[in-house]
Specification:
The chain contains 16 helices and no strands. The protein is mostly helical.
Length: about 350
């Protein structure tokens, strides 16, 4: 799955922060930096007197001086690090998270009676309220299934965005979930899977955190949605859907508790708007879980449309890349700002 150049740099920079720096993580990060240094040995150095990496990092508090790490690299090392992100070498230094809904996990989910296997999957919400109790005299809107598709896009996107580390920063992750899937905290309705997915992608593209992802990455989330809806087997078609919505709910609940404590202690300033949005999202996710237990199979009828949506979006991306390549070949060399702007407008 394609990610932006900043992904791998952010991976180790964020990994140095207090919330995710155990001894093993620090060791891996230091190994990565050392390998970056080794990659640059063949390049011309700015100074033959530059101290080695260990000396430059000596005395730094890896828990609190994450921002200083990048500054400790020489200009040569910084340039090579960025080049490694572009040509894919750095990707070999970062272990990419494998989602629990991936094809490799199908057999595991079927063996969930084993406690060791069960621990590899997010916890499912217990005692899901029956839909008939929530709606004793009426039927749910036909648009609920599109809200669920939007929730799945947000969930899979945030999991991928954080490389599986979405629980490290529950408040930030929950805010991203709310932004990507606005139907989970606002009275928004959609009429097709394509409409809700395009809405999610547009919201991602306009967001700050979305600047760190590529169009290919955003489109590939559609495949994740399809895998979640299909489930691991015909015998357990709703297992993945229930797990995804449950973890989405649990993450939002955790974030709301943190925000509530922060408001009381003064850590979070301002009004209760985020807390209210999180609470509203909880209620909608609770409803989606109840709906999925009764009507979740109706999502399977959307799979052909989702497959077509992914195919069309993927084809559009390839067309854009072809046009971009043609223009770059015509101009030759590195694009000037005006040329880059023109490429963006045309593509």
């Amino acid at each position: 799955m394609d990610c932006s150049e900043s992904f791998y740099k952010d991976c180790f920079m964020e990994g140095l922060k207090e919330r995710s720096t155990g001894p093993e993580e620090k060791r891996k990060i230091m190994e990565m930096l050392s390998r970056v240094e080794n990659e640059t040995e063949g390049l011309d150095s700015n100074s033959d007197d530059d101290p080695d990496l260990a000396e430059r990092l000596e005395g730094l508090d890896l828990d609190n001086d994450a921002g200083a790490i990048w500054k400790c690299l020489t200009e040569k090392e910084q340039n090579e690090f960025e080049q490694m992100t572009r040509d894919g070498r750095l990707g070999q230094l970062v272990e990419v998270w494998t989602p629990w809904w991936s094809p490799q996990s199908k057999q595991l989910i079927l063996d969930q009676d084993d406690p060791a296997v069960k621990s590899k999957f997010p916890k499912v919400k217990m005692n899901i309220t029956d839909l008939a109790i929530l709606l004793p005299k009426s039927k749910p809107s036909s648009g609920v299934k599109y809200t669920v598709v939007g929730a799945l896009y947000a969930y899979c996107f945030v999991c991928r965005l954080h490389n599986g580390g979405h629980w490290d920063t529950p408040v930030e992750s929950a805010q991203e979930l709310l932004l990507v899937s606005d139907a989970t905290n606002k009275n928004v309705e959609y009429n097709s899977p394509g409409e809700v997915i395009q809405s999610c992608i547009q919201r991602v593209t306009k967001s700050e955190f979305g600047k760190g992802t590529s169009p290919g990455f955003n489109v590939s989330i559609i495949e994740d949605i399809i895998n979640v809806i299909r489930g691991p087997s015909l015998e357990k078609p709703l297992v993945y859907l229930t797990i995804a919505l449950s973890e989405f709910l649990h993450l939002v609940q955790k974030a709301r508790k943190i925000v509530s404590r922060g408001l009381k202690s003064g850590k979070y300033k301002g009004d209760n708007s985020l807390k209210k949005k999180l609470f509203s999202c909880e209620k909608k996710l609770d409803f989606c879980l109840s709906w999925s237990q009764r009507l979740g199979m109706s999502l399977h009828t959307l799979i052909p449309e989702l497959v077509l949506e992914h195919s069309a979006a993927d084809s559009d991306l390839k067309d854009v890349e072809e046009k971009r390549s043609e223009l770059e070949e015509f101009w030759g060399g590195k694009q000037k700002p005006q040329q880059r702007k023109l490429i963006e407008e045309i593509t």
